[in-house]
Amino acid sequence: MLARWWGPHGFTNTFHEIDITPGGAWKFTMHGPDGRATKVTFRQTFKKEKQFEQIKQMCINGNEENFDRFGQLLEEIKSGSAG
Q1: What is the average pLDDT value for the chain, to the nearest integer?
Q2: How far apart are the C-alpha atoms of 65 and 9, rounded to whole Å?
Q3: Strands (E), 1-83
Q4: pTM for the full model?
Q5: 48: left (phi > 0), else alpha (psi -120 to 50), else beta?
């Protein structure tokens, strides 16, 4: 179900590994609306607060978009129209 709502608008995802324990990795492929694929390995570790502050707003905005898409999916499930 995560693949149906996570990521930027117009993208789909194939998840290969999700390990949310400390030191773990999240590995997935993002498929863009133009058909190109990007392999991503995500590890969120910041050694300095400045590194976090540099991407903080981008993360907040991206998460809001994800929550909007998740809400839409939940409404589809509730109404019985989710495929």
Answers
A1: 80
A2: 8
A3: 12-18, 26-31, 37-42
A4: 0.53
A5: beta
